[in-house]
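We modelled the chain as a single entity of 301 amino acids. Its sequence is:
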Amino acid sequence: MNYSKSSNKIRRKKISSNNSHKSEIQSDVVSLQYQLEKNRIDRSKIDEDFELEKEIFYRKRHKKRIQRNNLISKCLSFLLVLAFVGAILASVIVFVSLKGAPTVTKDLIYSNYVTQNTVPVNQIPDNLKNAIISTEDKRFYEHKGVDFRSLVRSVVNNILSDSTQGGSTIDMQVSKNLLTSEDRTMKRKIRDIYNAIQMNKVMTKDEILGAYLNNIYFGKGSYGVSNAARKYFGRNVQDLNLSECAMLAGITNNPARFMQHDEAKRRQKVVLTHMYNQGYINYDQYIKAINDPTPFKSEIA
């Protein structure tokens, strides 16, 4: 009997323990389910908030895009109007500047030569022609009278710096020397551009170069390469060597300064460097010409 009671007690303890364990498990399951449900609700709330923030973000971005496009559209419209007005003003300025301008012909060019002592371009040394081209207008044989790259670069340089830089081609300088004037005006510049373009329609590049070389001022009252060769070196232009050609070409940049021998010698090195860098002479010729004292006739006398 005692054994039975004891067994019942043990069984009741086991059942009680099992019931307690089951209860704990059930409690944990309920707690877990609650936590999962709570997490699901929180996640749903987070997703809703995210979607709302995303919608707000895209609305703002869309609004900014519309504002930016409107601003760009207004700026483009303003620039188009400005360009249109500028084109009209430019057309008027060009029309006024060219009004009364003579038709450019070979006869017009030749009739305006400043000296009668000229020399055919094919008798001028190649070194002298190359020295002038490499220093004054290195794309002379490539453009049709106006080197727009050099022209734009000179305008930008003159605006952004205190130094002045010319953008005139050899063709434009022929126009200035023979057809227009030395006036620093927009009208003269426009005429020189127009004349240079027209000149290329009726003359070869060599003919234009000959007109330039036969009329350019070299200082000391000398116009043209023939007179300059006689004045500075006492020789015919056909007989000038490389160093003499480079020195004469250098003088044209600023005759008032470079007609002095020491200044002309310094400028000669610049010209020879241009010629060497552009492939007109080799290194040995370059060194030999620099080392040549190249005296003026007045220096020898």
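As a brief sanity check on the tokenised model: The radius of gyration is 44 Å. The longest helix spans residues 2-98.
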